[in-house]
Amino acid sequence: MTHKPRVLIIEDDPDMIDLLCVILRRGGYEPVSGLGGQEGLRTLREGGADLILLDLMMDDMSGWQVLEIVKKDEDLRKIPVLIVSARHYLEDPDRTAAHAGLFEGYLVKPFVVRDLLTKIVEALE
After folding, report:
1. Which domain holds residue 116?
2. Looking at 1-100, which runs of residues are DSSP E strands?
3. Residue 125 pLDDT more than 90?
4. Domain count of the chain?
5. Residue 70 pLDDT > 80, yes or no?
6. What value does the mean pLDDT take over residues 84-102?
7. Distance between CA 26 and CA 45 in Å, rounded?
8. Which of 7, 45, 58, 61 has a CB 3.0–4.6 Å from the CB of 65, allowing a cystine?
């Protein structure tokens, strides 16, 4: 049996986590999740991931903060990150530009499932 890629969802909306888990399972991935940035980072450090789906607007810490922590960590920095946010990247172009190169893709909610799965495949290649 081949290894199912483990995809960590870092998101503070339980309904969005549930939706993403269904999409990921159907796509052949093993979803794990952290509710918010702190829990997401803890889950990542405990079990690792092949890819991270990261929300930007969370209560405990921003997705940008999570991204910076992941990319500064020797053990985690090679994990590809896809941003999945209700906030369009053009709403915060300076912050998005400042983090360019740290993430593999950006999807605006609500997203098209096919687009999400395509970006996951590309990021894992």
Report:
1. 6-120
2. 6-11, 30-35, 51-54, 81-85
3. yes
4. 1
5. yes
6. 89
7. 25
8. 61
